Each structure stands twice: as structure tokens, then as C-alpha cells.
Hints:
This protein is of the alpha/beta class and 324 residues long. It has 2 domains: 2-198, L-asparaginase, N-terminal domain (Rossmann fold, 3-Layer(aba) Sandwich), CATH 3.40.50; 212-323, Rossmann fold (3-Layer(aba) Sandwich), CATH 3.40.50.40. The chain is built from 9 helices and 14 strands. The protein has an 8-stranded mixed sheet with strand order 2-1-3-4-5-6-9-10, with helices on both faces. Strands 11-12-13-14 form a 4-stranded parallel sheet, sandwiched between helices. A two-stranded antiparallel ribbon has the order 7-8. Strand 4, helix 4 and strand 5 form a beta-alpha-beta unit.
Amino acid sequence: MILATGxxxxxxxxxxxxxxxxxxxxxxAAMMAAVPxxxxxxxxxxxxxxxxxxxxxxxxxxxxxxxxxxxxLADDTISGVVVTHGTDTMEESAYFLNLTVKSRKPVVLxxxxxxxxxxxxxxxxxxxxxxxxxxDPQAVERGTLAVMNDRIHGAHSLTKTDTTAVETFLSPLRGxxxxxxxxxxxxxxxxxxxxxxLSEFSVADVDALPRVDILYACTDMPADxxxxxxxxxxxxxxxxxxxxxxxxxxxxxHAARAAAAGVVIVRSSRVSTGRVGRxxxxxxxxxxxxxxDELNPAKARILLxxxxxxxxxxxxxxxxxxxx
Length: 324
């Protein structure tokens, strides 16, 4: 089953060689018709779940998407699901589904960096390869995957690294899951963190997620940004910190005060790759903070939003960042 949500893969432009385009203009039926060869791989059906640029992706859409995928994968006649998605927030949606889909069957996100109307559009081959992975028995129990530019990425490490280049997605921390070469798949490893059928998270009866904000650390960061998030009702704050999740002294003070008041503070990093260690330059034990370990700010936010669906201690939430 192909579930379409929009994005550049469904984009359209007035010129085949121009940079400007509008996302989410092409339907799933048109995308499927553009790649008739996928019928040689699997029996395909499609549904239009949404049709937005992924900068406009919402948790309302994601909750509906997770519910629909769980229902589809419970059907014995369906071997896997492909989700077409914009690249701007693909890594967040992939990670969300990695934690909320309850199946061993593959869920594969794909998209494009060039709209469907462009010269050398990359969407058709990405869709072809994504279907090949979703239909492949070897993809079972590998969690939510993303297939872009002949590469198979795991949701945990997937990172967009370039604003416009076709080779934008990398898995810098743990490497690729595998490759897909014109429908021929090759796998290197399995995800090493808990995911999908091993995940403790469920959104079956969830209508909304708790508010968690991301604050970007920088030179002379205004500490009252923390106060603004708290006043606006954030139950958690992710600090996209300098280096190893650091922040300046005033922000540290305000964040510690928020943590003492019950707001969950997670230190991540604005750096594109690397771990954020606990009790390195910041005394997390004393301040009541959490270290994001390998999760970037966007994914750290996803995990915390799900964690806050039930009451947990700081120690229990910290363990989630090591487990997921």
C-alpha cells in the first residue's frame, strides 16, 4: 500500500528547469501511473492521506497516518507500506512511525528533492526502490526505513544534510541499513535500538501530544526564551545546544529553574552529528536535565512528546534516550 502525504515528490513547477515549485500538487494515482514498472514488483494500491509540503506536516496527520498503517499492516494480504513524504521533516515522521507502528512488516518513507515536473526528477526511481524494499521479506523487522537516492536508511540515524542536493540524506552515526539499486536490495545491518513491534509507545487512543519546544543555543542566547516556553505551556524543552549540548550560564540557570518546576529539559545539540553525553560539561544530575544521547533536537522532541503521554521519572525518561 502506498500512502501519499504530499511533498516535493508530488510537486509541480511551471518550468522543468526552474528552481521554484509548489509541493503537494500531484496525486498518488498520478505518481503510481508515472512508474508502471512497480507493478512488476508487487500488487500496489494507493491512498491519499494528505497533500502538503512537509514543512506543513502536523501531528494530527501523523497520528492518523500511524493509525492507518497499523490497521493496514494487521491485514495478512499486505506485506508492507510505502509513505511518500516531503524531505523537510521526513526524518521526524520516520522516527515517529518507528516508535508508534506496531508491526514487524516494513514501513518505508520516500520522497524527492526535485519536483515531478523537473528534468531528471528523482521521485519515480525513489518510489520504485521504496516499493521494492517494502515488498522484500528481508526488510521485515528492520523498523521504519527511508529510501532515497538508492540508499536505505534507518529512522534513528536518518539526517537531512543539504538544502537542495539529491544526495541530502545520510546516516552519519551508525551507517546505512542497505542499498536499493533499481529494485535490487542489499542489506548491511539491522537497527540496534528498540523500534516498531518492540516499542512500548502506543498512540491508538491519542488525539493530541504534549507540547515540547526546541530552543536553539547561540552566542549570548537570551535566557528568557526558556521562560517564554514555560509560560506558553510547554511540558518539555529541547535545548539545541552548542557543541556537546551546552548553553550559556544564564540559560542554564533558567533551565534548571524550569526543571525544578517540573518541565522536562533535554540537552541535544545543534551540531549535525555526534552524541550528547550525560554529566560532561553540564552537571545533569544536579540540574535535573536529560542528555539526548544520539538524537538530534527534532527527534529528541518526538521521543519526549511520546514519553510525556504518561508520568515518568527523569531517570526513566533518560533511559528512553538510551533505548530508542
